[in-house]
């Protein structure tokens, strides 16, 4: 029986060592004032210790405390994460995976290769099978029973845990691992072989779990992420001065005709954003004066991450968003052989993360206005049975008038009505609710927790929870209380404390909440919700956009790039299963004539 050689576990070390402070610096923490705290953390954003801040405020040690500890601001953007869908069969925990090298399925003895034969891999024992084979497994996962009570009893009773005698072996011909199906690489000593076994038994046979090999013991559950980056090609970018528009006109001044659109109908002008998913481009519809933001996804990345369903859900929610003023509106979707395209309204006011980084924080009036429009959009989604799950500053954009739009619906979950729940671990770590972190079932209440974190960041300019790594951050979210600076009003503190309630059944925004409806909270006194939904309330801030191609509210590192798509390798294109994207193309009748 052959197995690939064991992988070496890398240990993360912290290079920064605790240095001894000078005698003048050895003063009691209780006597530190705001200026001393700022000096000690100069040059790096310090993690907030909520317990310490509350103690300082309650003990009256900082009589003039005005939130100086919270003045470092949000210095970076935070990406969302999502664990893959897990298919549990006989103890195996299969997740979809793209295999870049020839891999043999131990069940049907056929190769897994290309997007058309993308397979599953167990997170525990690393065995790889076709999608069509994963539900036909008869034997249990070796990793699922190695720590069971019966296994521990037998191991301690008889002191026997060596069913195979593995030795390093040099294979003279191409050989595949009998467990994970991967080709054993190298010219000599490519892997391990059992001395007492002349054949290579299938890992799906119902054998005793005590036979777990040293290689499979070292394998741990992994979350598959894609780090595919988009590269740029050379092309000329149209000058900003060529097209000038008054500030009172939207980027799309008229409604195009209802028809099927394709890549040849648009001219790409600038890059607005870029990530592992692809690019967001500013484009002009040919022979019109309509400008749109086009989100371009690489099909190979979508297939590799098993995100086809999420992409189709995003299209459905975007199409639904045209019925509400504070959701991003979809114009159309289309596809090419290598890419998927979402054509959306161009929101040239930038996102709230950009504005927070520029101004540090918002005043209460401005924060209240943005929060009210976000509440209106969230309640619309929840009434439609949609759970958003990725509410953050980066996903709230401003239009040319200063009104907000909720964008990026790739994390949405549909049909969450009544007692239906979800359990997927997804979202941006700083905004995750405690029930997501703990692996509990949850519903739309997680959006109201994220809304409380977002409101805190707008008012304070700092995240309510922090940590040196994700483990510490998640611990603080689940256990620590939030510290509020003194300059916040009682109404603001009250609504944020209700929103960031760790017990999801008591959280503000949930049905039958004892605090009432979120729109009736004192913080929103003075908001006429009917006028708000008709966009009749004047925004407190209007973006100073000079013309339609003015991208001053977007990262210059993106806008300076060349607006072209990266070509995909012909071999990858030939192996793609295009059937999975059938029905993706769509033209929104609500935004066309």
User: Order of strands across the widest beta sheet?
Assistant: 11-12-13-15-14-19
Q: What is the overall pLDDT average?
A: 76
**Global shape:** globular
Distance between the termini: 66 Å
* Helix amount: 10-25%
In CATH, the homologous superfamily of the largest domain goes by the name Transferase(Phosphotransferase) domain 1
The first-level CATH class of the largest domain is given as: Mainly Alpha
The radius of gyration over CA amounts to 28 Å
Oligomer: single chain
- Main sheet specs: 6 strands, antiparallel
CATH topology of the largest domain: Transferase(Phosphotransferase), domain 1
* Annotation, overall tally of beta strands: 19
Question: What's the architecture of the largest domain, going by CATH?
Answer: Orthogonal Bundle
What fraction of residues sit in β-strands?
5-15%
Number of discrete helical segments: 16
Please give the domain count: 3
Class based on secondary structure composition and strand pairing: alpha+beta
Contiguous runs where pLDDT drops below 50 for at least 5 residues: 1-48, 57-71, 157-162, 198-246
Tell me the layout of helices and strands.
Blueprint: E1 2-4, H1 34-40, H2 50-58, E2 81-82, E3 87-89, E4 92-97, E5 103-104, E6 111-112, E7 119-122, E8 128-130, H3 142-145, H4 149-158, E9 166-169, E10 191-194, H5 214-218, E11 266-275, E12 278-285, E13 291-298, H6 299-304, H7 308-321, E14 330-335, E15 339-345, H8 352-359, H9 364-383, E16 396-398, E17 404-406, E18 426-427, H10 434-437, H11 445-460, H12 470-479, H13 490-499, H14 529-533, H15 556-559, H16 570-575, E19 586-587
Antiparallel strand pairs: 1-10, 2-18, 3-4, 4-7, 5-6, 7-8, 9-10, 11-12, 12-13, 13-15, 14-15, 14-19, 16-17
């Amino acid at each position: 029986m052959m197995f690939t050689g064991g992988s070496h576990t890398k240990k993360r070390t912290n290079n920064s060592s605790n240095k001894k402070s000078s005698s003048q610096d050895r003063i009691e923490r209780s006597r530190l004032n705001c200026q001393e705290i700022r000096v000690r953390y100069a040059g790096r954003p310090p993690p907030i210790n909520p317990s310490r801040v509350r103690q300082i405020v309650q003990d009256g040690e900082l009589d003039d405390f005005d939130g100086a500890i919270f003045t470092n601001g949000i210095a970076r953007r935070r990406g969302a994460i999502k664990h893959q869908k897990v298919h549990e069969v006989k103890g195996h925990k299969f997740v979809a995976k793209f295999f870049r090298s020839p891999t043999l399925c131990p069940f049907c003895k056929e190769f897994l290769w290309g997007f058309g034969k993308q397979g599953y891999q167990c997170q525990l024992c690393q065995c790889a099978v076709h999608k069509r084979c994963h539900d036909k497994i008869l034997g249990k996962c070796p990793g699922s029973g190695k720590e069971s009570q019966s296994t521990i009893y037998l191991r301690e009773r008889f002191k026997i845990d060596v069913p195979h005698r593995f030795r390093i072996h040099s294979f003279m011909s191409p050989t595949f691992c009998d467990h994970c199906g991967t080709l054993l690489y190298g010219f000599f000593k490519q892997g391990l072989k059992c001395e007492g076994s002349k054949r290579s038994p299938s890992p799906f046979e119902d054998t005793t779990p005590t036979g777990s090999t040293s290689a499979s013991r070292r394998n741990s559950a992994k979350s598959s992420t894609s780090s595919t980056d988009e590269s740029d090609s050379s092309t000329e970018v149209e000058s900003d001065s060529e097209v000038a528009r008054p500030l009172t006109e939207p980027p799309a001044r008229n409604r195009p005709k209802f028809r099927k659109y394709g890549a040849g109908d648009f001219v790409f002008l600038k890059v607005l954003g870029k990530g592992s998913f692809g690019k967001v481009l500013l484009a002009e519809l040919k022979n019109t004066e309509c400008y749109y933001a086009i989100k371009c996804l690489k099909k190979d990345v979508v297939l590799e991450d098993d995100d086809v369903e999420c992409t189709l859900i995003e299209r459905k929610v975007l199409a639904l968003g045209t019925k509400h003023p504070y959701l991003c509106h979809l114009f159309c979707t289309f596809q090419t052989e290598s890419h998927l395209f979402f054509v959306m309204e161009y929101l040239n006011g930038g996102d709230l993360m950009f504005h927070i980084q520029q101004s540090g924080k918002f005043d209460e009036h401005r924060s209240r206005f943005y929060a009210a429009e976000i509440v209106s959009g969230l309640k619309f989604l929840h009434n439609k049975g949609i759970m958003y799950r990725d509410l953050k500053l980066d996903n709230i954009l401003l239009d040319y008038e200063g009104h907000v739009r909720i964008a990026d619906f790739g994390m949405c979950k549909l049909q969450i009505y009544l007692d239906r729940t979800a359990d997927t671990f997804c979202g941006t770590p700083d905004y995750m609710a405690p029930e997501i972190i703990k692996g509990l079932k949850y519903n739309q209440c997680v959006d109201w927790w994220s809304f409380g974190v977002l409101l805190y960041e707008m008012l304070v300019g700092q995240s309510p929870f922090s940590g040196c790594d994700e483990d510490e951050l998640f611990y603080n979210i689940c256990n620590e209380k939030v510290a509020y600076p003194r300059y916040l009003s009682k109404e603001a503190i009250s609504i944020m404390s209700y929103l960031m309630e760790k017990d999801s059944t008591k959280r503000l925004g949930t049905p039958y909440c004892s605090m009432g409806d979120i729109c009736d909270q004192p913080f929103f006194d003075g908001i006429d919700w009917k006028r708000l939904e008709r966009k009749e309330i004047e925004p407190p801030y209007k973006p100073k956009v000079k013309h339609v191609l003015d991208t001053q509210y977007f990262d210059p590192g993106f806008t300076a790039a060349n607006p072209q798509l990266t070509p995909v390798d012909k071999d990858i294109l030939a192996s793609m299963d295009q059937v999975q994207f059938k029905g993706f193309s769509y033209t929104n009748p609500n935004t066309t004539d």
